[in-house]
Write a structure and sequence with these properties.
single chain; 304 residues; alpha/beta; D-Maltodextrin-Binding Protein, domain 2; 2 domains; 5-stranded mixed β-sheet; 11 helices; 14 strands; globular
Length: 304
């Protein structure tokens, strides 16, 4: 096996993604070079190919959308121990940032965060512009052809969101969603793999971001959207009139593989040293640890 609600959540966060995000990975990106870390487009790559981790400068440079709460979001202040985004007056926070801090704390690294479009993350990892993407990415085989994955650092079940007064609010399985108008975030397994499993679904153009996806269901442009549970739980904070449709306890559910719901951290192909360092930290955490940290992130995610 991405990621990723409302005014601030619309502008900065939510929902959605790699989610949790999953799905197809990316086209060429416009990579951002950080003057703070001194990493160039080739500097980190050179260290990695020479046998180092790419963090020899002591700065762990990561990227995500900064707009996919509760995984990651941008906010205007440094509240809740957030981290300033490179070349920006905004600050990054969320589950991905919390995980990145744990990795940095283990090795005494400084954390640097860059904001990139979801489709730009894999190319940025490949080019060495960043050391890792911590962005709610599903650990899919397709992505693994281009990057290596550490993790999982979260296990994300797939759900749907609809309005509480929708005719689909009483759905007991995906069969009950037949014929509905729907969408999800672009380049995710939610859009590419899950929505097509719904019979006669009227699948609309993919939303460019998790906030845009959530706005589509909130404003009635679609009957329901597909995402992962953390994205959905975060959405309810911003949109209490939405309802989560969780079919995981029955057989009439989305068919997904472990790679599609296991969320990982992508590093440059062949960068075994960094991958092993990250895994050494994640390996000391339990599934409960991950869930508790996600709950914490959801509680502090922006709602206005």
């Amino acid at each position: 096996m991405k990621k990723q609600l409302i005014s601030c959540m619309l502008a900065c966060a939510m929902a959605v993604s790699l989610a949790a995000c999953g799905g197809s990975s990316a086209t060429a990106s416009t990579a951002v070079t950080s003057s703070a870390s001194g990493k160039s487009d080739t500097g980190s790559a050179a260290s990695s190919s020479a046998g180092g981790s790419g963090v020899e400068d002591g700065v762990f440079t990561i990227a995500n959308e900064c707009g996919y709460a509760p995984y990651n979001w941008a906010q205007p202040t440094d509240a809740n121990d957030s981290v300033q985004i490179a070349d920006s007056d905004q600050y990054a926070n969320g589950y991905d940032i919390m995980i990145a801090k744990k990795i940095c704390d283990a090795y005494g690294w400084k954390l640097e965060v860059k904001q990139l479009d979801f489709d730009s993350l894999v190319p940025a990892v490949q080019s060495g512009t960043i050391d890792a993407a911590i962005a709610g990415q599903s650990m899919t085989a397709e992505r693994a052809e281009n990057v290596d994955f550490a993790g999982p650092y979260f296990y994300a079940s797939i759900v749907c969101l609809t309005k509480s007064d929708s005719k689909y609010a009483s759905a007991k399985g995906i069969t009950d969603l037949a014929g509905g108008t729907c969408t999800s975030q672009i380049s995710t397994i939610w859009y590419d793999n899950c929505l097509p499993q719904i019979k006669d679904a009227k699948i609309q153009t993919a939303a460019e971001s998790a906030p845009a996806m959530l706005m589509a269901v909130e404003t009635g442009q679609v009957d329901y959207v597909c995402c992962d549970m953390p994205t959905a739980e975060g959405a309810l904070v911003a949109y209490p009139d939405l309802k989560i449709l969780d079919f995981s306890s029955g057989s009439d559910n989305f068919k997904v593989s472990d790679e599609e719901i296991n969320i990982g951290i992508s590093v440059r192909k062949g960068n075994t040293e960094l991958k092993d360092k990250i895994n050494a930290v994640l390996g000391k955490m339990t599934k409960d640890d991950f869930n508790n940290l996600m709950t914490e992130a959801t509680k502090i995610a922006p709602t206005s």
